[in-house]
Fold this sequence. Notes:
single chain, alpha/beta, Rossmann fold, DNA polymerase, domain 1, 2 domains, seven-stranded mixed beta sheet, 14 helices, 7 strands, 39% helix, 12% strand
Amino acid sequence: MSGHVPVLLDEVIAALAPAPGTVIVDATFGAGGYTRRLLEAGATVHAFDRDPDAIRAGQDWPEALAEPPRLILHPRRFSELVAGLGEAGVAEVHGVVFDIGVSSMQLDQPERGFAFASDGPIDMRMSQDGPSAADFVNGADETEIADVLFRYGEERQSRRVARAIVAARPLETTGALAGVIRKALGYNPAYKGSGKGSGAPKDPATRSFQAIRIHVNGELDELVAGLAGAEAVLVPGGRLAVVAFHSLEDRIVKQFLREASGAIAGGSRHLPQTVSGAARFERVSKAIRPGEEEIERNPRARSATLRWAMRTAVPPRAAKPSFAA
């Protein structure tokens, strides 16, 4: 857990503006990088994570053991943010932060099956329950696999990769799956090049692994529900901050904030029509990306994008949490 480096940490904390007495939701607790800084600023943090390992690691924090606690852990998906806060008797908060996608700890544990750098079982389940990635690649038909690879991984040769996966079944390890994908795409790791500026291509297995992970965990639907939940619980003047690592995720965040601020009229199934002038968020930031110094320290920060905005007094679309008095 100690190897985790939170991305855009200073920028996220500046966007949230924590202070003594504020209540902030860390919707993706992970190793607690954002939470620790929020606690140091005097805030009380409600931390959500569907990964039981993350929740278990936070239970021994002094702030979680204090009376009353300043760290309240919720072993839930962040799509359940409203319900979780309601059960805790909290109707409103001053800030919500999301760090979308897979965490460094999950990537660095071969047994979790998120990455192919170290061989492990094909798992990829953030919550460690339900159907696994192995169930999907070994059980789905070719058309479904191709659709997932194209939609969530933007893999142009998704049909060729899906055909190869089906032909190679059963697949048991991440290394075997990555090998099948590379072979289908004619990729030879021996010709990756060396060093910066070498023009080395990205390992093409990355796109398919990303797509399968997003599908198995329902990540885009989770994000849509989480953003709606954040809108429901933020007080007027409350801050929403979202760090995304994937273009599909960032597109959802960008469209949500544009629509919620009145910059565009909604029209999709995720963005219903906006009432003219009823901006639910304001002061929407431009995309904030890590500088070269941070990328040098933490290469995984390279693809990160932060967007943040401030809640207005316009009523939310979703209901606030209800709880017994």
